[in-house]
Design goal:
This protein is α+β, with helices and mostly antiparallel strands and 366 residues long. It has eight helices and 15 strands. Strand 10 and strand 11 form a beta hairpin. It is elongated.
Length: 366
């Protein structure tokens, strides 16, 4: 189900982002355990103690089907499937897999139950960013442009420098590559802003069965690019009703979840310090740009607009002799009409001398 995408722009560090998630199961399958509870209570159900026992059992059952958790940006929490996979001692190929194995071995138990995350360097993130089809037709063929865009990696946010051909560090402001390689042409053919991705997931598998990747559902996708733009799908609930997600299994279990912004707010003193810092930063940047322009740049008087025109005499035809030139005159409107030129009158000039050549049996000047 598509809940829409929202965009935020933030000057604050993305590391301060915290999102609270509340997941609750609301399917009618909870009626069956309730009937079992009533059968266990038996004849006591008509008494007050029996009703109290039923309520207590129902509250315990609802607490097991409900989960609250707060996630920080790029904070890794393992699903039950990942926990079972990484706890085994095997020859893991990648550095990330070995780190996950070490973390799982040191964990006595998972702090989360159904809720977990996929961070920027997980395989799931790379798979989600591969080519995605735009229709449900099995015969859909992606366009060449879609294939090229899908191959562009948007993993890492931009830094102050970059490594070129492994030879050395070059400042990022130097964007001109005099001898671009084929890979560089393919990579830079499409303008793509580097970004980081963070997924908040839910494992909605049945408790008596082994969890699989098909039981994992995306609750929220957050992307942050190098320009400070935060892309979030779906948005925070705030005062809106919870989002609903339905499993693909035969039982069609339904879950409701909410997303809340749990980031710490800044106090008045911190806001003033931050505004002062940004004003100082912008002032220094303006001074830097002024130093690049210099003081010799001539500005027109206040209230006057300067117009600069460039013209070109391209060619002349049907002349018989060499050593020809063109004398030109540009007439400027009068001062009464509000125009004025640097020379004070008509603008005139003379071109260089030219020689003739024959093009398609027509004599032309070059």
């Amino acid at each position: 189900m598509d809940f829409g995408t929202v965009f935020y722009r933030s000057k604050d560090s993305i590391k301060n982002l915290k999102i609270g998630v509340h997941l609750k199961k609301v399917t009618s399958s909870s009626i069956v355990p309730q009937a079992v509870i009533e059968q266990k209570v038996g004849s006591k159900s008509s008494t007050s103690s029996g009703m109290h026992e039923i309520r207590r059992q129902q509250e315990m059952l609802s607490q097991r089907e409900e989960e609250n958790f707060t996630f920080h940006w790029q904070q890794k929490f393992y699903s039950q499937r990942e926990f079972d996979m990484y706890k085994h001692d095997r020859d893991w190929d990648g550095v990330i897999e070995r780190k996950y194995h070490s973390d799982v071995v040191n964990l006595s138990e998972r702090p989360n139950r159904r809720l977990f995350t996929y961070v920027n360097h997980d395989k799931f993130t790379n798979q989600k960013e591969n080519l995605q089809y735009v229709t449900t037709s099995p015969n859909e063929v992606p366009t060449p442009l879609a294939v090229k865009v899908a191959n562009v990696r948007r993993r890492r946010t931009a830094t102050s420098s970059r490594l070129i051909d492994g030879e050395g560090i070059t400042p990022k402001v130097n964007i001109v590559d005099q001898k671009p390689s084929t890979e560089s042409r393919r990579r830079n053919h499409v303008i793509v802003t580097p970004e980081q991705t963070f997924y908040i997931m839910a494992d909605l598998s049945e408790k008596d069965k082994e969890p699989t990747e098909d039981d994992e559902y995306v609750l929220c996708t957050i992307k942050v690019d190098a320009n400070g733009v935060i892309t979030m799908k779906p948005n925070f609930n705030q005062a809106q009703k919870p989002y609903k997600i339905e499993t693909d299994r035969l039982g069609k279990e339904v879950y409701l979840y909410t997303l809340q912004n749990c980031s710490n707010t800044m106090n008045h003193g911190e806001k003033n310090r931050e505004e002062k810092m940004y004003k100082e930063l912008y002032s220094r940047h303006s001074q830097y740009l002024s130093s690049l322009v210099g003081t010799e740049f001539e500005l027109p008087p206040l209230g006057v607009t300067r117009l600069v025109m460039y013209g070109e005499i391209v060619s002349a035809r049907n002349f018989d002799y060499d050593g020809l030139f063109v004398r030109y005159i540009v007439h400027v409107p009068s001062r009464e009409q509000g125009w004025n030129s640097v020379s004070g009158g008509s603008l005139a000039g003379v071109t260089q001398t030219c020689i003739t050549k024959v093009e398609n049996r027509v004599s032309a000047l070059i």
